[in-house]
Structures are given as structure tokens and as C-alpha cells.
Amino acid sequence: MAGERSRAVLERALPYPYEFEPGAAALVVIDMQNDFCSPGGFGERLGNNIKPARRIVPVIERVLAAARAAGLQVVHTREGHLPDLSDCPPAKLERSRRQGAGIGDPGPMGRILIRGEPGHAILDELAPIPGETVVDKPGKGAFYRTRLESLLTERGIGSLILCGVTTHVCVHTTLREANDRGFRCLVLEDACAAFDPADHEAAIRMVRQQGGIFGWTARSEEWIRSLGELRGKEARHGNLGL
Ligand code: TIU
After folding, report:
1. Ligand 1 in reach of 214 Cβ (< 6 A)
2. Catalytic-role residue among 37, 88, 163, 170
């Protein structure tokens, strides 16, 4: 039973254990870019405290290391707009300007939320490595006007492990899009953050309510442990020549 042997089981997921095959799963790291995690970026200029976003950086570093070691596909996303703002909805632009975070306006990390500017870049600690995919998205959801769905389908990916910022905005929108498309989604709760912890808590609760209406949640060390247990199981079967 090769299928059984290659399936990890995360017992301590909510609302019930989460099973996944690392070879058919992708880790999706959402918007860990300067515009949301560094001083003077879009997130802070909207009036938010960016400390919670900084706090999850070492957690995501460990999650990334585990995913890479286990051979999962890794996808990084970035929210941002074209320099001519042609992909920015007028309502989004209007609201950003009213809030003092005008998309396309100059800031300490270049033009705010514009592709190619320093503010748009992923944090150095979490930078993609060769072979990983970067998806640039104009919206909150990673499926809207991107190639993400076809890319995952072509690679036979059916399970998504989600982390990043912000839990209730871009992580949740992506989760909802993915859930409607049939992906089995796990949200790593301590590897996500919102600027206000109350928003984070509510968003995490929403994932797993009603028997897991959008998917599953778990702590990242439990997910990493499930990969280690699978490796142990595979090694034992290998040693026995099964
Ligand atoms: N403002 C806020 O909470 N989030 C965003 O605008 N984008 C993402 O969540 N990435």
C-alpha cells in the first residue's frame, strides 16, 4: 500500500486529524513582504501595528525548512499592482488614499504596493529559493487573476498548507477560494498573523467551525512533527523491504 506509506497524519489538527501526502501538497506562504511586515509599508500606513507580522517570521522559517526537507512544492505570494495601476480597482485605490496609504504613492520603500519596488519584496529571511514559485496577485486572494490554480492542477496538488499575513484578509480570501476549488486546506495558526490579535483569533475560529467549514487548523510544530513521523514510517518500511 504505497498510498498509506506516503500519507502523513496530523492527529492534533482541528476539527479532526488532517491527512495529506507531501508529494501532493503545497506550502503557500502568503504576502510575507515588506509592505505588510516592515515599517513604512502599506500595512503600517493603513494604521496597523506590524509587530504580530514580524513575530511569525521565525515560525515560517522553520515551516519552510521542514517543507523543503520533505520535498513539498513551495509557493510564495505577493500582493501588488502594476506601476501604471491598471490592475488596481478604483475603489481599492480610493480607500487606500483616504487612509494615508495611497497605492502608488512614494514611501520609504519606494512606491506603495507596486510590483518591483523594495516594499513589494519578500523578507530576506523568507526569500524563495530556486525551484520555488512566486505568484504575484493584484487582489487579496491568490487565485484571482493569477496562474495559481492551473499551476497546482498541473502538478497534481490537492492539499494546501497556508501561512502568512494577514490571517483574516489575504490568508482567508485565499483559503476560501481554494476551498471552493476543492483543495484540502490546513491553516498553520501560529504561522499566520493579523495586525490585531482579535482578528486573527476570529479568523482561525472561522476556519474550523461547523466541522471545518473551510478546512483544518493546527500549530506548526505539530505539522512539522507529522512530516517527521512519516519519514520514520517510510524508513521502517524501507528497512523491511516492504
Ligand atoms: N490590510 C490587511 O490586513 N491585509 C491586506 O491588505 N493584505 C493582506 O492581507 N496581504
Report:
1. no
2. 170
Q: At a CB cut-off of 8 Å and minimum separation 6, what does 161 contact? A: 20, 25, 26, 27, 28, 63, 67, 72, 185, 186, 188, 223
Average pLDDT over residues 57-65: 98
Report all structural domains of the chain as residue ranges with CATH numbers, in order of start.
20-223 (3.40.50.850)
> What separation in Å is there between the alpha carbon of 19 and the centre of ligand 1?
29
3-state secondary structure the chain: CHHHHCCEEECCCECCCEEECHHHEEEEEECCEHHHHCCCCHHHHCCCCCHHHHHCHHHHHHHHHHHHHCCCEEEEEEECECCCCCCCCHHHHHHHHHCCCCCCCEEECEECCECCCHHHCECHHHCCCCCCEEEEECCCCCCCCCCHHHHHHHCCCCEEEEEEECHHHHHHHHHHHHHHCCCEEEEEEEEEECCCHHHHHHHHHHHHHHHHCCCEEECHHHHHHHHHHHHHHHHHHHHCCC
Catalytic, 192? Answer no
For the chain, give the percent of residues with pLDDT over 90.
93
pTM for the full model? 0.96
pLDDT for 237 equals 82
Catalytic: which of 137, 140, 163, 190?
A: 137
> Is 87 a residue whose pLDDT tops 60?
yes
Region 122-149 average pLDDT: 98
